[in-house]
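Final report, section 2: Outcomes. Of the targets proposed, Carboxypeptidase is the one most frequently requested by collaborating groups, and we therefore present its record in full.
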Amino acid sequence: MLQSALYTGFLWALLPSLFFLSGSEAAPTDNLPSAASFYVSHVPDLQQDSSRPLHVYAGHLPSDPDAASKPATEVTAHLYFVLVKNRRLADKERILFWFNGGPGCSSFDGLMMEVGPWRVDGKGGLRVAEGGWEEYTTMVYIDQPPGTGFSYTSTDKYLHELPDASRYFITFLRNFYQVFPEYKTMDTYLGGESYAGQYIPYFADAILNANLGVPFRGAAIGNGWIDARRQYPSFLEYAVKHGIVTENSDDWKRGKDITDRCMEDIEKEAGSIEPIHTDLCESVMNVVIEHHTKQINGTKTCMNMYDVRLNDLHPACGMNWPPDVRDINTYLGRQDVVRAFHAQDASTAWDECRPAIHRAFSTRRSNSSITILPSVLEKVPMMVFAGDQDLICNYVGLENCSNPILDCQQYRRWNLGNLPKSHLCQDLQRFPHGWIRRAPYKSRHDLTVHGCEL
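The predicted structure is given below as tokens.
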């Protein structure tokens, strides 16, 4: 999920067809590099399966919709992407654009820990992972907003609001299709996790209104942050349901008090917009689970907010998880890797989650994506799925925010490999959603093969 909890002290460890289409739409940039220039001829220290080789493209594309009006000397936004072509043919060809959360967290998380084709091997290199989503779908992992991961822009031009991020994404797409025109006719999907619960409805709405001429078919959100009004209260509800807090105990009363005050705060904010977060509400989760902070053999520990079965060092409380992050940082810091992935133009070294982007992208004037969803769902379906051991974007809150749209009253058993009691909402027409039992937040990290079934 969002590694940003480090930066704001809580949920920002996540942690209308508005005005992004007003005015003129940016045309594709002239003189773009050829597709061949983006080809990654080898992935350093990855032993590939010769019978199913990976075909990878990566690099930067101009993404500033206002670049034409800016001086040639100004550094304009360039979003970074990694494209992994599908290894097998399904019933038809598909392409999915993937986003990680934060805001400000790199989609290399998705590529290297969640739904991608390789993992770090613990020895400085990579190993092929089975069941990556590229098995049957061409995957494009995008570092956005500008400044995230290997993407770059001027440090005084970081984005602040979701409509702005949508405009930059659409500009990226126009240039992407100019370089790779063969993908413009493929069935197109969006996917992501955590704060992508905000990005994806906005981006979907932008695609539907941008006259791109692509067959946009739908989206998938895993453990997403979609609706503050219903997801903040879910921390206490989830904690009671999973035996983390006993109802009517002193711990429960403290959690109930901060939850009630959070809801009052949301009502105050809701006079002008439907808020994505509030400063007061960001303390709710920590209050609910603070009684699990303890000393073990002289070391202060706390509950892992991404997998409640685990503990972590305080105050990280999940930020050290999964353990792959350290090796990924080392791998992507190597200059031979940077060159191989055509990331030399990035102004700074790769960082999983960049605090400056997180702070800048405050979304204080953006309506929550829950206000966008109904109009999007009139045109394309969207799937929400979750691992049930995650607390910070837990399945209880996701069920609560989807029910006002679907009024889903019944879930049915769904066999997901050998996992018990996986569930899907009975109403699968517009907004299918379900939860995977015994899966942590990074359910794509642990359940990649089953993600393909989803």
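The first helix runs from residue 5 to 8.
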